[in-house]
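Box 3.1. Reading complex inputs
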Amino acid sequence: MESIIKRIEDEIAALTPILREEETGVVRSTGDGIAEIDGLENAVMNEMVLFDPTFDRTLEEAIKDETQTYGLVLNLEEDGVRAVILGDSSNVYEGMRVRRLGRLLSIPVGDSLVGRVVNPLGEPVDGKGPILKTTLMPIEREAYGVMDRSPVNVPLHTGIKAIDAMIPIGRGQRELIIGDRGVGKTTIAIDTILNQKSEPEATRPICIYVAIGQKESKTARIVADLTEAGAMDYTIVVTAPASSPAAFQFLAPFAGATIGEHFMEQGKDALVIYDDLSKQAVAYRQMALLLRRPPGREAYPGDVFYLHSRLLERAAKLSKEKGGGSLTALPIIETQEGDISAYIPTNVISITDGQIFLLADLFNKGQRPAIDVGNSVSRVGSSAQTKAMKKVSGKIKLELAQFRELEAFMQFASDLDADTKKRIDSGQRMTQMLNQPQGKPLPFETEAAVIFAAVNGYFDSFEPSQTSSAEVHLQDFLQREAKEVLEKISETKTIDEETETQLRTALDAFIKRTASSHTA
Amino acid sequence: MTSTFFAQALYNLAQKDDANPKQLVKKLEEYLARKNRLKLLPSILQALRKIELQQEKLTPLVEVANEQEIAKSLKEAVAIGVHTTKAKVNPSLIAGWRATENGKLYDNSAKRSLIEIYRKITT
């Protein structure tokens, strides 16, 4: 305490006011999170400004209230600028001085953000104290060019069988998760984060979950689930809840991308999940209309496509010369009544490298994850699969396509020929096998083993409706009695002849044991 | 938008040395009547008030902490290019002076320096 007082005394004794020259403006009017400012003729687009409350206050008042409210210049006009207020609008009043800060909006990034929950300005909101040892990075950056990138060829395992087998995602890819409300979009995203725990620490991606316009209770529950599973050790949460200003909901995805790029440029892998971009588009629309920008289709501003394209282009797999790091993006879009041909969904579908389409009908029928395999695609494809997964998953999509065609005939089951019945049963078993409970992602070697069993007919001795429970028993069996086979698949990432023989032996033993337990 | 243009034109004309404000207003009324746009008059008046308010904020102003420092502060302000001969006393500055002109702020006050010291120590 005494040292602080002494320091203050020394500073004041040596005080000589230094002349500072700054460009300032005056708030002409403010409302709805937007401030119209007179002056600031030399301000640039996306420049940060500071609403300075100390100008009209005494020293005592200025020290008592340390609130600093920033703004972001988004409209440059003839006699002034318009800025969005990044914070509580009630702190800004007409006649207030505004100072240019001479820099673009930047946020703190660094390893010390891991495990924390922050707002789009990088300020902690989890009550765990300040975040130290960070550097500033601009929130809007140009994406890497073609020559700085390398092809996407390293898998990002979600731990969800249906996705890893049929819609594989690679590190550096953008894969859209799209569907109506309540069909399991966030579940897929969170399970992907949870599954990264089974990756070796050296290759485990840093996960960034960006909650845009979500209920705070939902975000709190997600953080609690991640903490319980130990996933917060490698996860950062950026939150702009529904009650936050539209500017925060607009900036949150860019903040997430900036944090991810920091790790990518260090040669590490990062995964960023934007949940969801529909809400960011709505927030951007609100801001654009308040900024008096001309509305376009569905009242969105004309550059709403650019909003998402410049965000998603920042996901990349960098070349070896640039460190070889990657940023994988899983944007989420909410549709209305399953309409994927609406404005924002079609925009984002055209930007991303594939989509995972979730159907409410399938969800209600009990197929979870409710993936519409026919309309879902990964444009990276098998380049992002291990050899083991490629070997076992080749036939699944075709089988399921054939099953879907025959599904309509299921109602006339008694009149079907044996071959058709066999195909239908096989399709039903496959569908059951691909079902997976929430919060239970599987390591890829277990996925490969289970799918191997399914495509090679090891579940044929079970009724289609029993396939799910048989699969769970198989997982337990393999963990207990065939762990070395799983470890070999995990190490070599392939199922060679020897491994296949060992796996078949284990599966035969499983079938025998199950059959004998039934007869007993 | 049109009212703003008229208001700005009227304001610019009124700033000239030989301007006669009453005559300018009369001419404006005649012009608007000829063009059948007399309805614009209230909004032109509103826009004019807005422009005057904006200009008020941008006119040169020097503030000093106390009356004894007026002469010295004005001299220093003029030396750096602030075009004014008037100063206002603002005790909240504690010491030194502060000037604004054409969107630029020149702050040579003790208040600003003390706030910076406080922030440096507490963060």
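In summary: The interface with chain B takes residues 4, 7-8, 11-12, 15-26, 28, 38-41, 54, 57-59, 62-63, 66, 79, 95, 97, 99 of chain A (CB under 8 Å).
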